[in-house]
Amino acid sequence: xxxxxxxxxxxxxxxxxxxxxxxxxxxxxxxxxxxxxxxxxxxxxxxxxxxxxxxxxxxxxxxxxxxxxxxxxxxxxxxxxxxxxxxxxxxxxxxxxxxxxxxxxxxxxxxxxxxxxxxxxxxxxxxxxxxxxxxxxxxxxxxxxxxxxxxxxxxxxxxxxxxxxxxxxxxxxxxxxxxxxxxxxxxxxxxxxxxxxxxxxxxxxxxxxxxxxxxxxxxxxxxxxxxxxxxxxxxxxxxxxxxxxxxxxxxxxxxxxxxxxxxxxxxxxxxxxxxxxxxxxxxxxxxxxxxxxxxxxxxxxxxxxxxxxxxxxxxxxxxxxxxxxxxxxxxxxxxxxxxxxxxxxxxxxxxxxxxxxxxxxxxxxxxxxxxxxxxxxxxxxxxxxxxxxxxxxxxxxxxxxxxxxxxxxxxxxxxxxxxxxxxxxxxxxxxxxxxxxxxxxxxxxxxxxxxxxxxxxxxxxxxxxxxxxxxxxxxxxxxxxxxxxxxxxxxxxxxxxxxxxxxxxxxxxxxxxxxxxxx
Length: 519
Description:
Number of helices: 19
Structural class: alpha/beta
EC number: 3.2.1.52
Shape: globular
Protein name: beta-N-acetylhexosaminidase
Low-confidence stretches: 1-20
GO molecular function: beta-N-acetylhexosaminidase activity
Radius of gyration: 24 Å
Helix content: 25-40%
CATH topology of the largest domain: TIM Barrel
CATH superfamily of the largest domain: Glycosidases
Oligomer: single chain
Family: Belongs to the glycosyl hydrolase 20 family.
């Protein structure tokens, strides 16, 4: 075993010498050239906008706060920012020769991604920064590249949310799906209904399960993300996963009774679809959500909503009869359509989990987007049904984009709910679906659910290094490297990511020690 490890380390060292700079996700075109550009203190720089965030990001993360001397002429600068409207909105070019670096994009998004590439390209200490000479041309493969964090089951500090927004931008993702409501916690302040957060934010019993985000904190996070080309998509789950909300407002349930909050899984206690006042309440909540979040997309959940209470509820049964609906699943579709239409009036699109399209029924409006997730339970049923009905689709199959699934069994995760970097790199159903190039498939999302009390200190080792493989699939347009070579590059970059504050866990099942503790 030690002999194999020595050979692998030698291969990695060789890769570092022969493969040039390694960047994740890989740029689409890199033409290495002879020489290097060395920048010392007081760097001459040219840009049309010295106040742009991407300039300050370059200075803090690449130039390491070296001083800058602004130039009025591009020819006298060592770093030049140039606009080219012909480039794709998220594309960029970097041209480095021994005398000058030119960064070209059509706008802020491309410039941000150019900086994220340069963060991995630069070498040397502050005061003597070195860039290998090259021409880089880059743009994404998918329009939707997303990371989802579950703050419903576990509450994370605002600083932690920002850490993973930084991570998403570094890996050139452009959406951050923020799961804000769950049976174990309602995390978003709603001014009209303060009990939702005050009571619903404190129903959990485990570590890091109490708390909510004020609207001021949410605006701060949205602004922070926007600077980094991240759109935050909030999720307000309905009608299921509602136990925290029902703890604060029991009248929103079918029978108006106090509910028990499950520490694992979910219960029959969901929002009542038969009461007009429940729909009004939830629309009022969405009004405040839309006032807070500028995102064109609002996620309305819709998964794992058992209908036992609806089947017994007089109000729900009256609604089914009055609307001539087929059953309680049809009632959920009608309920979902009411909420989606409310968002449509505000110019927003509604995202639903794939559960809503397992069966045909009441039609959803044309602002509907389906997020396919349950490959483990239903294979690609939701994907195919959504495409059949011309709904746009986000691919986030639990095999293999759910990064809460560990590499080896842990707590509620049995062997069949495990996977490693090689599994996702070679066999990710979401990536295979995106490679169909169906225009209705928007792209891919990966997720960190916090089931079984995944606290803040546990997050990094679940994400890294597997999320690097997913980011590569979301961004890179070229022919994928074979896995062995890709993994060598990951190992080569491990120290760099850890210097950025992201701790690696094991990459392969074969690497996990028998006594490894995921918590």
